[in-house]
Write a structure and sequence with these properties.
mainly alpha; Amino acid/polyamine transporter I; 18 helices; globular; transmembrane helix; Amino acid transporter; transmembrane; AA/rel_permease1; membrane
Length: 468
């Protein structure tokens, strides 16, 4: 049998396969999913580290840059979702416009993104919960149940349990998960807004001087620190791919996906920039290299009693981010199983809840294992690399998408074509270049492993290669 690794999938094949999924998500649900992913660890941990290490108070500009580029890329995703409302997001889109091998590489990169994101969020959740909630009631887990073997423990029990709880909610179907997400997003956004309002009264203008410290200047054009911080904080904006991954379960995706993406961008940029400006105004950037910058800032201004409120916001924020990433990751595994690139059982959908349960189970096992046994704080950049790779391909992919005569799109189209798709793709490549060298080495190894799996298993079992 002749095999063609650049053979392109038919959109009709995906649409027919995904007809088994139930369309229940509306614009408000997609915005909740997007905010659920975007407003999580990114806002509660990253601003402090990036201000202290790379950009000073100008970290607000880094978040603004990351949000603007994500918004541009989000429009590319929205056009793809309008033209191809199918599960699998960048993987499915890439398979149609570039060919199977590129689609697989994007899918493989996004598996790294989704799974590690959930595990990292679970680890962050455990740290907040163990140190602030359990400690407050006088209960402390044994040390060997707080960390994995690499940190001289046995297992991070809280991290494993929270992954299992999220898996249970996801397994009940989109109706339950979207209800939990919608309520939780309102609570955590309210807490963040409250922090911003209260913090405004404690800002010291001297903390903004210098706004962009000279020691962080570097190539290119003196924006090295701001660019590196922006590349790193893309971890905060990985929810856009997850929104597109839910296209097959969205009502009227031609309209609702773009509304969900752009609504998420607007809310996220307002919250992130406001939060970082208040944070660096309360505390000098040099003192913000901590895992709980908001709680630390409240201690500095003698509002320690508010710590529990911030902790609740952090826990809810991280939990909703896990829901969105788990949702997207399980749908990606389902799509790869649906197409034969992974074992076909992963592509089956539960008749009861209309959920790909085998894909959910696999995601649960892998994510719980990483969360329980591996410290993931240093792997945020790896998540960024997979995200930015998908961002670049999808942005440039708008150009061949427009040229496809067999794909009709009567919904959203990216404006200022082809300038904006090229700009969005070029920015994504630039931020990949600005990631640390070690990150680029590790992600290259991951992609190489994916290519080997494709040629050993995927190409032999692919439905596309078999003309199914």
């Amino acid at each position: 049998m002749k095999r063609d690794i650049f053979k392109k999938e038919s959109i009709d094949t995906f649409l027919k396969a995904d007809a088994r999924l139930m369309r229940t998500l509306h614009t408000k649900d997609l915005i909740a999913l997007g905010i659920g992913a975007v407003i999580g660890t990114g806002i509660f941990i990253l601003p402090g580290h990036e201000a202290a290490q790379h950009a000073g108070p100008a970290v607000a500009i880094s978040f603004l840059l990351a949000a603007l580029v994500s918004g541009l890329v989000g429009m590319a995703y929205a056009e793809f979702s309008s033209a191809m409302p199918v599960a699998g997001s960048a993987y499915s889109f890439g398979s149609v416009v570039y060919g199977e091998i590129i689609g697989w590489i994007l899918g493989w990169a996004l598996i790294l993104e989704y799974f590690l994101a959930v595990s990292a969020e679970a680890t962050g959740f455990a740290a907040y919960f163990n140190n602030n909630i359990l400690a407050a009631i006088g209960f402390e887990l044994p040390k060997f149940l707080q960390t994995g073997p690499l940190e001289h423990g046995v297992v991070n029990l809280t991290a494993v349990l929270i992954v299992l709880l999220v898996a249970f909610i996801i397994g009940q179907g989109t109706m339950l998960s979207k209800k939990v997400e919608n309520i939780a997003v309102v609570v955590k956004v309210s807490i963040i807004v409250l922090f911003i309002i209260v913090g405004l009264f404690y800002i010291k203008s001297t903390n903004y001087t210098p706004f962009y410290p000279e020691q962080f200047h570097g190539a290119p054009f003196g924006l090295g620190g701001i660019s590196t911080a922006a590349a790193t904080v893309f971890f905060a904006f990985i929810g856009f791919d997850a929104l597109a991954a839910n296209s097959a379960e969205t009502v009227d995706p031609h309209k609702n996906v773009v509304r969900g993406v752009l609504g998420t961008v607007v809310i996220a940029v307002v919250l992130y920039v406001s939060f970082t400006l208040v944070l660096t105004g309360i505390v000098n950037y040099k003192d913000l290299n901590v895992d709980d910058p908001a709680a630390y800032a409240l201690k500095v201004i003698n509002l320690s009693s508010w710590n529990k409120l911030i902790t609740i916001g952090a826990l809810i924020g991280i939990f909703t981010a896990m829901l969105t990433m788990f949702f997207g990751g399980s749908r990606l595994v389902y799509a790869l199983g649906r197409d034969g690139l992974l074992p076909g059982n992963f592509g089956k959908v539960s008749k009861k809840n209309k959920v790909p349960m085998r894909a959910v189970v696999l995601a649960t096992i892998v994510q719980a294992a990483f969360a329980g046994f591996v410290p993931l704080t240093e792997l945020a950049a790896l998540i960024n690399a997979g995200t930015l790779l998908a961002f670049a391909f999808i942005s440039f992919g708008v150009i061949p998408l427009r040229r496809r005569k067999d794909i009709h799109n009567n919904g959203f189209k990216m404006p200022f074509y082809p300038f904006l798709p090229i700009l969005a793709g070029s920015c994504s490549i630039y931020f990949i270049w600005m990631l640390p060298s070690l990150t680029k080495i590790w992600v290259s190894i991951w992609i190489l492993a994916g290519i080997i799996i494709y040629f050993v298993y995927g190409i032999r079992h692919s439905n596309l290669q078999k003309n199914k």
